[in-house]
Write a structure and sequence with these properties.
The chain is mainly α. About 40% of the residues lie in helices and about 0% in strands.
Length: about 70
């Protein structure tokens, strides 16, 4: 590893990272790196449209309540 990154963490988050490191027997830096890797690899699998989820307001609460879509 040749790159260094300094990050300020809230005390509660740092304690959670330390707890995971103690339980797993891994260094804190490795726990942070693996967590970043996991988070970043999951993000590229998500649809580009995901950022728009929940943005549109109004309209029917669900498609089945729209006129012409009911199965009654």
């Amino acid at each position: 590893m040749s790159n260094t990154l300094s990050v300020r963490l809230p005390s509660d988050l740092l304690e959670r990272v330390r707890r995971v490191a103690r339980k797993s027997g891994l260094p804190v830096g490795r726990v942070v790196r693996e967590s970043l890797e996991s988070t970043l690899s999951n993000q590229k699998d998500q649809s580009p449209w995901r950022k728009y989820a929940g943005v549109i307001k109004g309209g029917p609460p669900d498609v089945s309540s729209r006129k012409g879509f009911s199965r009654r």
